[in-house]
């Protein structure tokens, strides 16, 4: 009888110890839960920050460039002058839909046989056997003593600047030009020869500088044929080109190979914005 009681007491003590161990274990787990939850929350926050950083770094920018600022235009009647693939320092004017080029640009770049007579306030052009004279603000000009008509005013002056109608310059110069709007710009071709060209295999954004974060100037379409220019040293994976065929005229850059990571991330961002 005594042995049975002792055995029961031993069992009760052992059972109590087990219950206390389990209680302490449950208490430890309860105390650890907030710690584990906090740690998991920190990990999730860090993961979100890391993913957001990757997206910001590799996603394609859809920012559009300020076209007026790109060509340095400040007034609606100003026109950017593109000589071959380079923008002239001096702007021209757009008057009644007709492009006028600064006289300095005409003489220094297009045709050095044009002169400005400051004493008589008139434009001169030297023919092999005669002299062309054009008074300011007149649609008439003289070849020797013969009077000719040009349909609209040939020479305009604004302050100290003199502007010549580009069609009149073309009359005596081997050049072709194309006038664009939004913003105003005129592309003048006067040097002839072969050029490297390329055809776009896919739609591609044409950016102001070499970089997927650079603002977009215009959008190239599959099948567009573009002139390829020499790209500056140190710029890899980008091609420099004039984009006049895309209704833009000035040297710019576009990627010469696809940026698959950037494209995929940008596509996922656009897809996430859709209303399903």
Note down, in words, how this protein is organized.
With 276 residues, this protein is of the alpha+beta class. The chain has 5 helices and 19 strands. Strands 1, 2, 3, 4, 10, 11, 12 and 13 form an 8-stranded mixed beta sheet that branches. Strands 5-6-7-8-9 form a 5-stranded antiparallel beta sheet. Strands 14-17 form a two-stranded antiparallel ribbon. Strand 10 and strand 11 form a beta hairpin. The longest helix has 57 residues, at 2-58. It is rod-shaped, with a radius of gyration of 37 Å. The N and C termini lie far apart (79 Å). 19% of the residues are buried. Residues 243-251 and 256-276 have low confidence and may be disordered.
Output the helix-strand order.
HHEEEEHEEEEEEEHEEEEEEEEH
Main pleated sheet: 8 strands, mixed
Using only CA atoms, what is the Rg?
37 Å
Regions with pLDDT < 50 over 5+ consecutive residues?
A: 243-251, 256-276
The count of strands amounts to: 19
* Principal-axes shape call: rod-shaped
Assembly context of the chains:
single chain
Q: Structural class of the secondary elements?
A: alpha+beta
Question: Separation of termini?
Answer: 79 Å
Count of discrete alpha- or pi-helical segments spanning 4 or more residues: 5
State mean pLDDT (0 to 100 scale): 77
Percent of residues in beta strands? 25-35%
Helix-residue proportion? 25-40%
């Amino acid at each position: 009888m005594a042995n049975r009681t002792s055995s029961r007491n031993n069992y009760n003590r052992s059972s109590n110890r087990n219950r206390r161990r389990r209680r302490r274990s449950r208490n430890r787990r309860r105390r650890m839960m907030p710690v584990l939850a906090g740690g998991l929350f920190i990990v999730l926050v860090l993961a979100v920050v890391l993913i957001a950083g990757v997206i910001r770094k590799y996603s394609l920018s859809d920012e559009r460039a300020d076209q007026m600022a790109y060509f340095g235009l400040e007034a609606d009647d100003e026109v950017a002058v593109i000589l071959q693939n380079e923008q002239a320092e001096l702007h021209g004017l757009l008057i009644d839909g007709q492009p006028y080029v600064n006289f300095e640009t005409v003489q220094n770049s297009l045709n050095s046989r044009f002169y400005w007579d400051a004493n008589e306030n008139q434009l001169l052009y030297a023919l092999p056997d005669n002299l062309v004279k054009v008074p300011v603000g007149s649609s008439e000009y003289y070849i020797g003593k013969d009077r000719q008509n040009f349909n609209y005013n040939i020479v305009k002056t604004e302050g100290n600047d003199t502007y010549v109608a580009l069609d009149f310059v073309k009359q005596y110069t081997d050049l072709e030009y194309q006038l664009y709007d939004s913003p105003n710009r005129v592309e003048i071709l006067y040097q002839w020869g072969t050029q490297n060209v390329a055809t776009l295999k896919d739609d591609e954004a044409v950016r102001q500088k070499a970089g997927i974060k650079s603002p977009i100037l215009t959008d190239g379409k599959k099948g567009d044929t573009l002139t390829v220019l020499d790209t500056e040293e140190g710029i890899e994976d980008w091609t420099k080109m004039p984009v006049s065929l895309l209704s833009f005229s000035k040297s710019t850059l576009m990627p010469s190979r696809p940026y698959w990571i950037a494209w995929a991330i940008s596509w996922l961002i656009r897809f996430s914005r859709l209303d399903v």
